[in-house]
Design brief:
The complex is a heterodimer of chains A (about 450) and B (about 375).
Chain A (H helix, E strand, L loop, with lengths): L31 H14 L14 E8 L13 H19 L4 E8 L2 E9 L2 H12 L9 H11 L8 E8 L10 H10 L2 E7 L5 H10 L8 E3 L3 H9 L20 E5 L3 E9 L6 E7 L6 E2 L4 E2 L6 E2 L2 H5 L2 H4 L6 E2 L28 E6 L2 E6 L14 E2 L6 E2 L1 H11 L3 H4 L9 H14 L3
Parallel strand pairs in A: 1-2, 1-4, 4-5, 5-6, 7-12
Antiparallel strand pairs in A: 2-3, 8-9, 9-10, 11-12, 13-16, 14-15, 16-17
Helix pairs in contact in A: 2-3, 4-5
Chain B lengths: L24 E8 L2 H6 L6 H18 L4 E7 L4 E5 L22 H7 L16 H19 L3 H4 E2 L2 E2 L5 H16 L10 E8 L8 H14 L3 E5 L5 H10 L3 E3 L6 H9 L3 H4 L14 E2 L6 E2 L1 E5 L5 E2 L17 H7 L34
Parallel strand pairs in B: 1-2, 1-6, 6-7, 7-8
Antiparallel strand pairs in B: 2-3, 4-5, 9-10, 11-12
Helix pairs in contact in B: 2-4, 2-9, 6-7, 7-8
The chains are: A alpha/beta (about 450), B alpha/beta (about 375).
Family (chain A): Belongs to the GTF2H2 family.
Organism (chain A): Lipomyces starkeyi NRRL Y-11557
Pfam family, one (chain A): C1_4
């Protein structure tokens, strides 16, 4: 947080800003307009995405470390830090496997100066969620030990093949760490093994956490270590780890990270009489047959329990394509160009018409906070608050809900898809798309 | 208002709004209007007959529940178009409006005329249920405008008539429309359940694979099933769409009986499908085809940077799509062949080939 204010002195020397003055009733005495503006401002803030197509590690192996120490029984987050962390961890598990279906996850807890394995490194979300639900019934106690947790994580990630990423995400609510040895040595070993650590702090910034993040992420500690401001921010920081991390250049030539992996693509069978599946020994009437050893497994993606071959469907690979080819940001349209479209191209919502000389609230977005200041416009509507967003490729206009939907859930631009000739891509991207299509459409 | 007898005073298990069966349902129908596609289907069924069947289907959907809603989107070769509801049109007008191209008629004439003049097929029957008439008129009028407005240059591509249709654009638009209508989920759950139905005549387009997969995953996240009514050749992408989202895929063998397929397999909505056995295609081939030879592979090699699939490790040691160079040691590991050891030959003449691969068993015959 910046200590110097823009006026030159310290921020505590500035005049008092009453943030509650923002909410003012309009002529009719209602707050509906102010609330709507605040909601719009919140939506606009979420619209800045990083859309450079980076090379990302798609096969991920991530260890989630939870702080189960005494400081987690603080009640500054409802109902307690502990309960909220476990709830968000369950949501993290669901989102992680949705975004990265061929990856694996393990969970470790720090309690009483020791590290406990909550859930083994595996690819099945129900197991992890079951283990987390069982954690809810326990009480936090003792002190956390970062070194023990990192050593256990390192051991769990030791056998990961070189084409997978090794990551650790720590939810840390304390201000200290009780370690049996020299934690700096551990951090050095982690760096040598290419393990990347990311920490979400709940209390305050702790120097050792910053050091760990800085050393394991090639000097970048701002995007990997975050301290939460409120519950919403906690969720954002935690779920930001669901996106595959960008690959760094700091890999030695021996382990380039670019590998060819052998995978099996089983086909589904439907049987007339039930038979056992190899993974759970449960009777079922259908399943998938491993192409190498012909054993039946009940769900994908999984590793064949008999021969160890990774079994996936081509749809699981397709889930990660939007990380490799992200959707471009759309530009906000100001009132001068706003007359070109009267309704949203995708959902047919009628756009608001240009206002006349009535006073409007001007919304400005600055940094991580949003200031909504009430100013009386002089009759000329300025600024980008026309509520229209234009895609730079197809030049169609969309409303803010469609913008959020397209960038967060759909990852397609409806206008570009609806134009003959498809998206305007660079040649490399177009070639990639065509080849991906031919690999999944059989002749 | 759906109760016809006086049984509403009998206490029910839960409030009506909490039961999924009572929630109104939104049906978004995506109609593929590619001229070449329908031209190829012309002997058994024409676009005109199909649209007539589909309008009956949409009317039946609206009749099932007073609050049901519908939307129709046309997927053309070079654009997509909302056939109903169209932005800017006011559907609350009480007086029936004429859509006849021969000029406007006064309302008295229409009432006395009763049925429409059969030449241009518009439905001016003032005694038709208003919701049905509004949808039917809008669809017919917008479809006429769309097809009449298509010039030869729109459907030609490099000199040949293209068999393309913008299914990915139509799916994206439909999902955005559903997102707006279902949107704001409050504590009681969504107020409307939505589903998409696609009537398709064209085959797959390789360039639309990634956008269609994105639409499928978005539909899966929003819990919107995608039903497919396929006339003509089978498609892989749409089969996967129906399977992943929990929809129904039917390939019409006798397209002339389309209305029967629609009414039995596609009309029941999500809540009813739990209680019925719906005919759908269950054998779906999920195997992939390799990029280099387009062979179907059971065991493939996947580049972990760009996720492209090969049937065997590429000869030059680099990925053809993303140009990453693979580790030669790893490639050599993948190419190892199993050891062949023969035990009937005296030891000094036994030949050992390359080192044993860990997942292959040696091929030997046990001695007596």
């Amino acid at each position: 947080m910046e200590l110097r204010s823009t006026a030159g002195g310290y921020i505590w020397e500035d005049s008092i800003q009453r943030s509650w003055d923002v909410v003012q009733e309009d002529a009719g005495g209602s707050l509906a307009g102010v609330v709507a503006e605040l909601v719009q401002a919140g939506k606009r803030k979420r619209l800045h995405y990083d859309t450079t197509p980076l090379q990302r590690g798609i096969i991920r192996h991530l260890i989630l470390v939870l702080d189960l120490s005494m400081s987690m029984s603080e009640k500054d987050l409802r109902p307690t830090r502990y309960q909220l962390s476990v709830s968000y961890a369950i949501q993290f598990v669901t989102d992680y496997f949705e975004q990265n279906p061929i990856s694996q996850l393990g969970i470790i807890g720090m309690r009483d100066g020791l590290a406990n394995l909550v859930s083994q490194l595996g690819g099945n979300p129900t197991e992890h969620i079951g283990a987390l639900q069982a954690l809810r019934k326990q009480e936090p106690s003792g002190d956390p030990s970062l070194q023990n947790a990192l050593e256990m994580a390192r051991g769990a990630l030791y056998h990961v093949p070189s084409h997978g990423t090794k990551e650790v995400v720590i939810i840390f609510g304390s201000l200290l760490s009780c370690d049996p040895g020299d934690i700096h040595k551990t951090v050095g070993i982690l760096k040598a093994e290419h393990v990347r650590v990311c920490i979400v702090g709940l209390a305050a910034e702790v120097a050792i956490c910053k050091e760990i993040c800085r050393r394991t992420n090639d000097g970048d500690s701002t995007s990997t270590y975050g301290v939460i401001l409120n519950e919403q921010h906690f969720k954002e920081l935690l779920l930001a780890s669901c996106t595959p991390p960008a690959s760094t250049k700091q890999k030695s030539s021996a382990s380039l990270g670019s590998d060819l992996m052998r995978m099996g693509f089983p086909s589904r069978i439907v049987e007339t009489s039930p038979s056992f599946c190899a993974c759970h020994s449960r009777l079922s009437k259908g399943g998938y047959i491993c192409p190498r050893c012909k054993v039946k497994v009940c769900s994908l993606p999984t590793e064949c329990p008999a021969c160890g071959l990774t079994l996936i469907l081509s749809t699981h690979l397709a889930r990660s394509y939007h990380h490799l080819m992200p959707l471009r940001n759309w530009d906000e349209v100001d009132w001068n160009d706003a007359k070109q479209a009267s309704s949203c191209f995708a959902c047919q919502l009628p756009f608001p018409t240009a206002p006349s000389s009535a006073p409007r609230l001007r919304v400005s977005v600055s940094g991580s906070t949003t200031n909504v200041t009430a100013t009386a416009a002089s009759g000329i509507a300025t600024g980008g608050a026309s509520g229209r967003f234009r895609c730079p490729s197809c030049k169609q206009m969309f409303c803010i809900d469609c913008d959020l939907f397209a960038h967060e859930i759909l990852h397609n631009c409806p206008g570009c898809e609806a134009a003959a000739g498809g998206r305007k891509l660079s040649n490399g991207q177009a070639a990639t798309e065509v080849s991906m299509a031919t690999t999944s459409a059989y002749a | 208002m759906n109760a016809v007898d006086g049984s509403s005073h009998v206490p029910q298990v839960g409030f009506a709004s909490e039961l999924e069966e009572e929630l109104p349902s939104l049906l978004v129908l995506i109609l593929d209007t590619s001229p070449l596609g329908w031209g190829a289907q012309s002997p058994p069924i024409s676009l005109h007959d199909a649209v007539a069947s589909l309008l009956i289907f949409v009317n039946s959907h609206l009749a099932l529940n007073h609050s049901n809603e519908a939307a129709v989107i046309a997927s053309h070769t070079n654009c997509i178009k909302y056939l109903y509801p169209v932005a800017g049109e006011d559907y609350g007008a009480s007086a029936p409006k004429s859509t006849a191209t021969s000029g406007t008629e006064s309302s008295e004439e229409m009432i006395t005329n009763g049925q429409s003049n059969g030449d241009n097929g518009t439905l001016n029957d003032a005694s038709m249920y208003r919701q049905f008439r509004v949808v039917n008129e809008s669809v017919m009028k917008q479809l006429d405008l769309l097809l009449l407005g298509t010039s030869a240059s729109d459907i030609e591509h490099n000199g040949t008539i293209s068999d393309t249709t913008l299914i990915s654009g139509a799916l994206s638009t439909a999902l955005a429309y559903i997102n707006r209508l279902v949107g704001g989920v409050n504590d009681n759950g969504p107020k409307v359940r939505a589903r998409i139905m696609v009537v398709s005549v064209c085959s797959d387009l390789a360039s639309q694979y990634v956008p269609i997969m994105n639409c499928i995953f978005a539909a899966q996240k929003m819990k919107v099933p995608i039903d497919i009514c396929k006339i003509g050749n089978d498609t892989v992408f749409l089969q996967q769409a129906a399977d992943t989202t929990g929809g129904v895929y039917m390939h019409l063998e006798h397209p002339r009986g389309m209305i029967q397929y629609l009414m039995t397999a596609f009309l029941p909505d999500r809540a009813l499908r739990k209680h019925l056995v719906i005919p759908t295609q269950s054998s779906i081939d999920f195997r992939a085809a390799c990029f280099c030879h387009n062979r179907i592979v059971d065991i493939g090699y996947v580049c972990n940077i760009c996720l492209s699939i090969y049937c065997q490790p590429p000869a030059d040691g680099s990925c053809a799509i993303c140009d990453t160079i693979f580790d030669p040691k790893e490639l050599a590991d993948l190419l190892k062949k199993p050891v062949v050891v023969t035990t009937n030959v005296p030891k000094n003449k036994a030949k050992k080939k390359k080192k044993k691969d860990s997942d292959a068993t040696p091929n030997f015959t046990p001695g007596p």
